Amino acid sequence: MRETTLDRVEPSDYDAIVAGGGAGGLLTSLALTAEGKRVLVLEQAKRLGGVWHGYWVGDFRVDQGLHVVTRIRRGAFVRFLKAHLNPPPEFVLHEGWHFRVYDKVGTIPSSIGETLRWPLTGVRGRLGLARIGAKIKTMKLEEMKQYKDITFREFMESKGATNEVMLDVMQSAIYMAAGVSIDEASAYEALRTLKDTDRESSRLQSARRLIFGTDEYDEGIAIGGMQSLVDRVCDAISGEYVLNAPVDKIAEKGGNVRGLVVGGKELEHNLVISNIPLWSMPKIVTSNRPDVVQFFERWSQMRVTQGVTIWLGLDEVVIGDRKSRVIVHPRPETWMISLSSFDPSCAPTGKELLGIATILHEGRTAEEMVNAVKSNGLKEYHEEVLKHIEMEHVQTSYATRAALIPGQTDLDRPGPETPIKGLYIVGTDTSGSGVGLQQAANSAEGVLTAIKAQSS
Ligand SMILES: Cc1cc2nc3c(=O)[nH]c(=O)nc-3n(C[C@H](O)[C@H](O)[C@H](O)COP(=O)(O)OP(=O)(O)OC[C@H]3O[C@@H](n4cnc5c(N)ncnc54)[C@H](O)[C@@H]3O)c2cc1C
Residue 252 CB: number of other CB atoms within 10 A? Predict the structure, then answer.
């Protein structure tokens, strides 16, 4: 894809116009390229990628967020990249989740046997966990759906699963996946995360996993960082892009999309794919039709999740393994990964890059959160880290465009189609199961399927 300017754009040169060049918009463009189409991407910022992004801070290469890619073996994101990039990008699997509860450390038990030996609770806690764990692992997706409007804590209480340590560990796991606490996360979304599935498995498969467990953590880090992926995806797309080009209006006439207005210029087209966050769309879509107004107005108050990522460049290797470390106590929201042990190219030789993710709570500043993380879990359990800091860099942004709370689950969200023919929506707030980039890729697949269905 080549950069161009608005004054040179001729809409009829393109098969589709994509408004917004975040992960959703770019992955859709990549898939359209594979169908032989040319696209025009209009991006309001001065670079492509949205929150899918990476850059250098001194000698350390950081991403926007920790960017652990879920479902490396079977997810839509990696499938997209492997199908369309040559050579395919490389990912390194991580070696599991380690939850620290005060001075004890345990992984997520993956079988009944492991649960009954779990070091983080006493015998009663383990029995309770085995009971609820078995229930969750064998639950069908259809059954989970009935819990979409209650919180995960309500679900657990309704099943009598109230052991505090178990709930704290789940609190941490759900924070990492949903960006909100178990008092807010939709039980359906939390259950899917804990079962780690977006598709149905047979009773036999579930039973086998319960008995034998699995050490298959299907998650990892992209070698070369996120920016190299963004750049390669942009190179592979057929078409052009314009930066600093905020789309002001998307116009409808007679039920069809007519085109859009960008930088005062009108571009007519009958296929527009919007990657603009849904909460901005009521201001952008112009239509007198009540169904259209209602459709977009519904999402104007969407709640996002706010993340804080603390990057620490250390002057020597202190952690040095490929694990996801979650510090559950005293606060259940600190997640730490040694990125340079997955991908040494992000730190100078002999040094270490640590990423620490946490949640930005309403009413608190990023600085307060950084101090809380340092003086709680880090000071207590990883004091060595604090003694070797050479670089410190803090990022804040929305980590997910739609928090996984009741009313905003993937079952509630609208999907790729709108009441306007020829206008499709893509992005993590539209629909698509999974988290983050997986969700963006799933939503891009949804758009492609909808466009094909419409044209056949
Ligand atoms: C801190 C953090 C940690 C994360 N961790 C992970 C992780 O570990 N694993 C994972 O898979 N994912 C992770 N993610 C999530 C993942 O990066 C995002 O879910 C995904 O990149 C979002 O893609 P999107 O298409 O929904 O949206 P966005 O990135 O929001 O893209 C929307 C684009 O549209 C543009 N735009 C908006 N309005 C207009 C307009 N009017 N005109 C033109 N352009 C417009 C924006 O500038 C932007 O480029 C993380 C994200 C963050 C920020």
Answer: 21
Q: Chain-wide mean pLDDT for the chain? A: 91
- How many domains is the chain partitioned into structurally? 3
Residue 87 counted as domain residue: no
233 and 208 together in one domain: no
For residue 185, the model assigns a pLDDT of: 94
* CA dihedral for 95, 97, 101, 102, sign (positive or negative): positive
- The domain in which residue 333 lies consists of 54-73+303-400
Tens-place pLDDT, residues 139-170: 888 999 999 999 999 999 999 988 888 888 88
CATH code, 34? 3.50.50.60
Cβ contacts of residue 79 below 8 Å, gap of 6+? 441
Return the best residue to mutate from 66, 221, 275, 442 for the ligand 1 pocket (most ligand atoms within 8 A of CB): 275
Residue 162 is assigned to a structural domain of this protein: yes
Q: Are 357 and 290 part of one and the same domain? A: no
Q: Output the residue whose Cα is nearest ligand 1's atom 25.
A: 24
Ligand 1 neighbour 428 (Cβ under 6 A): yes
- Give nearest CA residue, ligand 1 atom 36: 20
> What ligand 1 atom has the least distance to the C-alpha of 284?
41
Q: What is the CATH number of the domain that holds 166?
A: 1.10.405
- Concatenating the DSSP letter of every residue in 45-80 gives SSSSBTT--EEEETTEEEESS--PEE-TTT-HHHHH
What is the token pair recorded at 325? 């470390």
For residue 12, CA distances in Å to 239, 423, 451 come to 12, 17, 18
Tell me if 397 CB under 6 Å of ligand 1: yes
Which amino acid, residue 22? Answer: G
Give residue 426 CA to ligand 1 midpoint distance, Å. Answer: 11
Q: What is the pLDDT of residues 206-264, one digit of tens each?
A: 555 655 556 556 788 999 999 999 999 999 999 999 999 999 999 999 999 999 999 99
**Overall average pLDDT of the 3-22 stretch:** 97
CATH number, residue 332: 3.30.190
Q: Of 1-15, 166-180, 230-244, which range is least confident?
A: 166-180
Give every CB contact of residue 332 below 8 A, 6+ residues apart in sequence.
168, 169, 171, 172, 175
Residue with the bigger pLDDT between 211 and 65: it is: 65
H-type alpha helices, 388-435: none
CA dist 408 → 183, 189, 229, 399, 415 (Å): 15, 10, 29, 15, 12
Q: Which of 154, 118, 159 is nearest to 136 (CA)?
A: 159
Cβ atoms of 5 and 424 within 8 Å: the answer is no
What three-state secondary structure class fits 147?
A: coil
